[in-house]
Amino acid sequence: MRDVLTSLEKWWAEGRSIALATVVGTFRSAPRQPGASMLVGPEGEAVGSVSGGCVEGAVYELGNEILEGADPTLQRYGVSDDDAFAVGLTCGGILDVFVEQVDRETFPQLGEIAEAIRGHRPVATATIVSGPGVGRRLVVWPDRVEGSLGSDRLDDAVRDDVRGLLAAGRTTLVTYGTEGERRGEGLGIFVESFAPAPRLIVFGAIDFAAAVARIGTFLGMRVTVCDARPVFATSSRFPEAHEVVVEWPHRYLAAEAEAGRIDGRTALAVLTHDPKFDVPLLEVALRLPEIGYIGAMGSRRTHDDRLDRLREAGVTEAELERMSSPIGLDLGARTPEETAVSIAAEMIARQWGGNGTPLSGREGPIHGDSNVEPGIRAAELASGPR
Asked: Region Disordered: which residues (predicted)?
């Protein structure tokens, strides 16, 4: 919903009805992830995409039916035959798309959700997409809930699980029994997490940092540039960063971690390649288990010297293995912009389990298993990380 929120909120605020189509499940080489959305507007406008063009026509027709009074519907789209023009995904994937009518009556919390998203405050929605009560919705904040899925028992179970998913920034389909049994079946509930954007903290106010900040913003991350030297750490030098901080890097990172602003979706790009800055910083970073990516720039010689200094500081071999150094994938990069692409490529590969090899040299689905997440049982959430 995030990708169509501007248009959705505008029509909702005007008191108009919109058909909202959301990808709730993907299988094999599906082109969009759960949460991708498309709108059919009050005047027949189409906004957004659920498949990159494969099934939008069919979804548009279904959206019009919803606006004419049809019930909320979960529809599966996949390859139907060998005709590339048939309704289906010619890439070989399968999408489950939930289509519902949205207006001020069916979704009264939308305005507050939009405000939370703009303010970088976490919120999630849990919507029944299959089973009894299709279309019922629970809106979950860290400290309260609104709406209901039909019973207190079900609401309580879903609320607790959704808060765990929201903390991890996960959007997925979860299955329950009709009374909230975590090992049951019968209800498919789509949880869409609107967690704050993942963070990219760039340490070192150098020319490469400007390019890394720019590509981080392009990827939808919230970018901070930090350097202890005020003459270099200025907003005018890094206009595309969300914030520029003048502070010793290790102190800043430790304070952010203490304040709870570092999590598993945080990426660190250490570009200082100066031991008086990066060794104390990496001592802190490598001992914070929740950081998702830690990359450090430097030559092979700088890398070896850095490892020696970190070992002398007591950093263990297991902790050192969490560091990507030298930073980035081998793309033959030379310029700051090319180097930024190399760093971003490594962050993406770490996130989704890619290995950086050319797709032309691989066989099988392009996306592999990285986007295959059918409805997980709520019991799996209760038992901890999968």
From this structure: 354-386
Q: What are phi and psi of 98, to 5 degrees?
A: -100, 125
The two three-digit tokens of residue 307, written as one number:
């490892």
Question: Token pair of 211, please?
Answer: 């390019």
> Can you read off the two tokens belonging to residue 188?
């498919």
- What's 25's DSSP letter? E
Reading the block at residue 173, the tokens are: 């389909």
Give residue 189's Cα distance to chain centre.
Answer: 19
Q: How confident is the model at residue 26 (pLDDT cuts 50, 70, 90)?
A: confident
Higher pLDDT, 68 or 185: 68
Q: How confident is the model at residue 82 (pLDDT cuts 50, 70, 90)?
A: very low
Transcribe 101-154 into DSSP letters: EESTTT-TTHHHHHHHHHTT--EEEEEEEESTTTT-EEEE-SS-EEEESSSHHH
pLDDT of res. 382: 60
Helix, strand, coil abundance in the chain, percent, nearest 5: 30, 25, 45
Q: What is the mean pLDDT of the chain?
A: 89
| CA dist., res. 63 & res. 226, Å (int) | 47
166, 142 Cβ separation under 8 angstroms: yes
Please provide the distance, in angstroms rounded to a whole number, between the alpha carbons at the two ends of the chain: 26
Report pLDDT for 84.
Answer: 35
Alpha carbon distance 100, 62 (integer Å):
10
pLDDT in tens, 34-59: 999 999 999 999 999 988 777 889 99
Name the β-bridge partners of 98: 22, 74
Q: Which whole-number Å values give the CA distances from 161 to 8, 164, 379, 382, in the listed order?
A: 27, 5, 9, 7
Q: Is residue 343 scored above 80 in pLDDT?
A: yes
Identify the H or E element spanning 48: strand 46-48
Paired tokens of 293: 């990516």
**Count of CB atoms within 10 A of residue 311's CB?**
13
Distance CA 141, CA 121 (A): 9
Amino acid at 37: S
What CA–CA distance (Å, rounded) separates 23 from 371?
12
Contact 293, 267 (CB under 8 A): yes
* Residue reference for tokens 């070192």: 204
